[in-house]
Design a protein that fits this description.
By secondary structure, this protein is of the alpha/beta class. The protein is 41% helix and 17% strand. The chain contains 13 helices and 13 strands. The protein has helices spanning 17-34, 51-64, 85-99, 114-128, 184-194, 197-208, 227-230, 237-255, 282-295, 302-313, 336-346, 354-357, 360-370; strands at residues 7-8, 11-12, 42-46, 67-72, 104-108, 131-136, 142-144, 150-152, 162-168, 173-179, 212-222, 262-267, 327-328. The longest helix has 19 residues, at 237-255. It binds nicotinamide-adenine-dinucleotide (NAD).
């Protein structure tokens, strides 16, 4: 069928198979151009189909020459509606990586579940023996706990409601938004979904099964951001989960000293992904950030960030961290020259001036690209197999 974008708020409900393949190809080209580094050769990526996880998988494959196992939760096509972008991305990646001589196997299902962990461990035993890197890049709205109860994460503040500006993605207008405070149950649930609990379960299961290599490295991703986003992010319900994620990194490194496991948090840049589009205030900040970073020649997308993470910050096993032991890929974003420009105009930006002060076009270009739309070398009028 002819596939067109159907955008509802911050989500696109269709995805273009050829466009997704194009997106994967472009990311692969980007890593090939960036170069290579010495690094792990057997890598497990959890949350491997979109955003930072997909780019991680591409960077380790083409930068380290690694074989990968990916885990993601994506919807297949039923013949009438398209599959999700992550499903097409994964198919495309497996195909291209396979043609290039790399092992790439993917599991589609609930990464929180015991069954998924068992299936992946079985596969590691059969095909890899052990893994020397585990990337945990899952971003989920909800989680079914082993008890069978399903809990949902919320994007709310902690303490008091917070009012600020946001970009209304339906109209591209600047509107005021009040983010309510989360109650204790919501904070707890957000930590259960987006904190370090499941990362710990994965590492524990891999260790207990004897499939974590000596000196293995594991990574999970976080965000800090500038003061304008603190109430909703760093100090909000998601921030509590990210604190838990950080504490888990310290715990894992200490707990698995016998095999020399190192667990790191990489603090990444704010970027358009399916998850970040859902956070109030953040899309406005991202559009202004893109504008300033592009002007300064410092803009990066997921793949540029992940190339720098794996091929510079972690290259050759020498890990560059801040005083708290975190890898800082938000180093460009947080530069004084970038942040001062945004804070100077933040208070005055409105629906008119955002056209100048923000990069709304850049925001939407990346948004459409995420679903495989907007590539000049893809013929969107053509019938495609979904
Ligand atoms: P994303 O939505 O693009 O990717 C999420 C991935 O998780 C997908 O592969 C999806 O299939 C997978 N997933 C979701 N639920 C799952 C489940 N139940 N089982 C298995 N897989 C599941 O998100 P992203 O923005 O790339 O986020 C990845 C990580 O990076 C998160 O920890 C996020 O907080 C962090 N991060 C994001 C940004 C940003 O601006 N986007 C910035 C810094 C850090």
């Amino acid at each position: 069928m002819v596939v067109e974008p159907k955008v509802k708020g911050f989500i696109c409900t269709t995805a273009h198979p050829k466009g997704c393949e194009e997106s994967v190809r472009r990311q692969i080209e980007c890593t090939k151009k960036f170069g290579k580094a010495e690094g792990p050769k057997k890598v497990l990526v959890i949350g491997s189909s979109t955003g930072y996880g997909l780019s991680s998988r591409i960077a380790v494959t083409y930068g380290y020459g690694a074989d990968t196992i990916g885990v993601a939760f994506e919807r297949e096509s039923n013949g009438k509606r398209t599959a999700t972008a992550g499903w097409y991305n994964t198919k495309a990646f497996e195909k291209i990586a396979g043609e290039d001589g790399y092992y790439a196997k993917s599991f589609n299902g609930d990464g929180f579940s015991r069954e998924m962990k068992d299936d992946v461990i079985q596969c590691i035993k059969e095909d890899f023996g052990k893994v020397d890197m585990v990337v945990y890049s899952m971003a989920a709205p909800r989680r079914t706990l082993p008890s069978g109860t399903t809990v949902s994460s919320v994007l709310k503040t902690v303490g008091e409601p917070f009012t600020n500006k946001t970009l209304d993605l339906r109209t591209n207008e600047i509107k005021e938004v009040t983010v309510p405070e989360a109650d204790e149950d919501e904070i707890k649930a957000t930590i259960q979904v987006m904190g370090g609990g499941d990362w710990r379960d994965w590492i524990m299961s891999l260790y207990d099964a004897g499939v974590l290599a000596e000196g293995a490295v594991t990574l999970a991703y976080s965000y800090i951001g500038p003061v304008v986003t603190h109430a909703i992010y760093k100090d909000g319900s998601i921030g509590q989960a990210k604190k838990h994620l950080y504490d888990t990194s310290v715990e894992l490194t200490n707990k698995y000293k016998d095999i020399g496991l190192k667990a790191y948090i990489s603090v990444n840049k704010a970027l358009v992904t399916q998850s970040s589009a859902a956070i109030p205030i953040v899309p406005l900040y991202i559009s202004m950030l893109y504008k300033v970073m592009k002007e300064k020649g410092l803009h990066e997308g997921c793949i540029e960030q992940m190339n720098r993470l794996f091929l510079e910050k972690l290259a050759g096993g020498v890990v560059q961290t801040d005083e708290a032991g975190r890898i800082r890929l938000d180093d460009y974003e947080m530069k004084e020259e970038i942040q001062s420009r945004i804070s100077e105009v933040w208070d005055s930006v409105d629906s008119e001036s955002i056209k100048e002060l923000g990069d709304i076009k850049g925001y939407w270009d990346e948004f459409y690209n995420m679903f495989g739309f907007g590539y000049d070398n893809v013929d969107y009028s053509e019938d495609v197999e979904i």
